[in-house]
Design a protein that fits this description.
Strands 1-28-27-26 form a 4-stranded antiparallel sheet, with no helix packed on it. The chain has a 4-stranded antiparallel sheet with strand order 2-3-4-5, with no helix packed on it. About 15% of the residues lie in helices and about 35% in strands. With about 525 residues, it is an alpha+beta fold. The chain has 6 helices and 28 strands.
Length: about 525
């Protein structure tokens, strides 16, 4: 039913008039100016008892520690500056004075009864911390170090007591360390100087994308797998072709040479994993079980165990000799791009297109930790052999983790591309290679990127064929092998003529580094 404009106006005016009649008489009234002191005193005493009664006295163990601990520099504010709710009220009989449970960090329960008010205690603590901050900054400037960062967290209420030693240690651990005077200090790691890398040799011979490579433990030869369905063996020193192994019926996606046996393992998109006897150059075992293409392989350093992952979203553990599947470790929901193994726990690490990194218990055959910090597919992993840590590469970031629980350490930001492979040598040089042909060189400890280069495609190839699929260092860490989309293999080495003076470190501490 529609209502006319005049009718609505009349209803509004009537409602306004009714509201005015209801509330207008109270507009001119004045509240009672008398102040009932007894009611106010009782109210405040109840608030003090309810809010601070449970912390008026320390527990016996804590009280004994506080009595034996060295007290802080005494703060003696003048007694005339006591804070009261009403100056006209006598101090003990009618007035209410707000006191904290402990006036000073080192005082006991008996001493606190005669201490100064909590508000003055908070102000005194502020002045004391400001003095410590000024002294720490002066010492830091004398040592030519980073400025000292002091914790300026104040007590949110007068009832907050001094933090215990455990909570203080936790705050120091989160802040990054302890400096002079007990102040929290954040000290970024200064990067170590590394020589820049340059292209040494280009090897051609494959008829398709070169997808993977592995170096023999003798450091005399290496093998590569390609989309032309062949495996080739190359001499590392001269780059000449020594052997071609046909056998797969689809693209070869992973190869790995055993350091303890004369075996070569290869995985392909034909769902098969093959074991080659390098003394006879023929296949001696096949490992069947994957339901789709196999993308990655890793040999356990000390056990006769082979770990594989592929497009069926599973990580499978094989007995190298009996060809039996020991574990089928499921949990990923998309393609498993990379797996790594190590002697220490967790012995198996996997990265997947579901943007997860999983740490696996090899004995139980189940996942022990799932890391979900990445937002894009994880295609690359690199494990440090000595620091008990590893890095994972994705299109969003390179993230550094600490074993065994996968605690996040830091981000290595700056490689804005889809990272296909990462490698790490014993000198602390981390290499990340991407599908756009860029190679970034990092100092592993500090996360500093000291060089960025772009690969040069083979003459006659398209610019879009500048992708890099795999990287690996030789056994000495002085040669880097890259497998690329222009059907070539490139070998890189350090520049012998470079010095810290010719290539200085351009490093500035990043205080805004993302911590997630």
């Amino acid at each position: 039913m529609s209502v006319g404009v005049g009718t609505v106006d009349a209803l509004l005016l009537r409602s306004l008039r009714r509201t005015w009649d209801l509330f207008q008489p109270s507009h001119s009234s004045v509240p009672n100016s008398e102040y009932d002191l007894s009611v106010a005193t009782a109210k405040m005493s109840m608030k003090v008892r309810d809010g601070y009664g449970h912390v008026r006295e320390l527990p016996p163990p804590t009280a004994s520690k506080a009595s034996t601990a060295a007290p802080d520099p005494p703060l003696q504010p003048p007694s005339a500056n006591r804070v009261k709710l009403n100056d006209s009220i006598p101090e003990h009989e009618g007035g209410v004075e707000i006191r904290g449970p402990h006036a000073y960090p080192g005082s006991t329960a008996e001493e606190s009864s005669s201490a100064s008010p909590a508000m003055l205690h908070v102000l005194g603590r502020m002045q004391h911390e400001k003095a410590q901050l000024a002294a720490g900054q002066q010492r830091g400037s004398e040592r030519n170090t980073l400025p000292v960062v002091a914790s300026t967290t104040l007590l949110s209420s007068a009832s907050a007591s001094t933090p215990s030693s455990a909570s203080q240690a936790l705050m120091i651990h989160r802040a990054g360390g302890v400096g002079a005077g007990g102040l929290n200090v954040v000290q970024p790691v200064r990067p170590e100087w590394h020589a820049p890398w340059k292209l040494m040799r280009v090897i051609a011979g494959h008829g398709g994308w070169v997808r993977c490579a592995s170096v023999d433990v003798s450091n005399e030869w290496f093998v590569t797998g390609s989309a032309d369905r062949t495996i080739k063996v190359w001499d590392l020193a001269s780059g000449t072709l020594k052997l071609t192994l046909p056998g797969h019926v689809a693209s070869v996606r992973a190869v790995v040479v055993s350091p303890r046996h004369p075996y070569l393992f290869s995985a392909s998109e034909d769902k098969e994993i093959k074991c080659w006897d390098l003394e006879y150059n023929r296949v001696i075992r096949n490992y069947h079980g994957h339901l789709s293409a196999v993308y990655t392989l890793s040999l356990h350093p000390s056990l006769d165990v082979l770990v594989s992952g592929g497009r069926d979203s599973s990580v499978r553990v094989w007995d190298m000799r009996t060809k039996k599947e020991i574990h089928l470790m499921s949990g990923h929901t998309d393609t498993v791009h990379v797996v790594e193994t190590q002697d220490a726990e967790p012995q198996v690490i996997s990265g997947s297109a579901d943007s997860q990194v999983r740490l696996w218990d090899l004995a139980a055959g189940r996942c022990r930790v799932t890391l979900t910090n990445h937002k894009k597919a994880v295609r690359a992993l690199a494990v440090h052999k000595e620091e008990y840590s590893f890095v994972s590469g994705s299109a969003d970031n390179i993230k550094k983790w600490k074993f065994p629980e996968g605690v996040f350490m830091e981000n290595l930001s700056g490689h804005k591309a889809i990272i296909n492979s990462m490698s790490l040598n014993r000198d602390g040089v981390l290499v990340s290679a991407a599908d756009n042909g860029t190679i970034n060189f990092w100092d592993y400890k500090s996360g500093y990127k000291f060089q960025e280069v772009g690969t040069i495609v083979q003459p006659g190839s398209l610019t879009s064929e500048a992708g890099i699929f795999s990287t690996t260092f030789d056994q000495t860490g002085s040669r880097l092998i890259t497998c690329e989309a222009d059907k070539t293999i490139k070998i890189w080495k350090e520049d012998e003529d470079a010095t810290p003076e010719s290539h200085p470190i351009d490093w500035k501490p990043n205080r805004n580094k993302a911590k997630f």
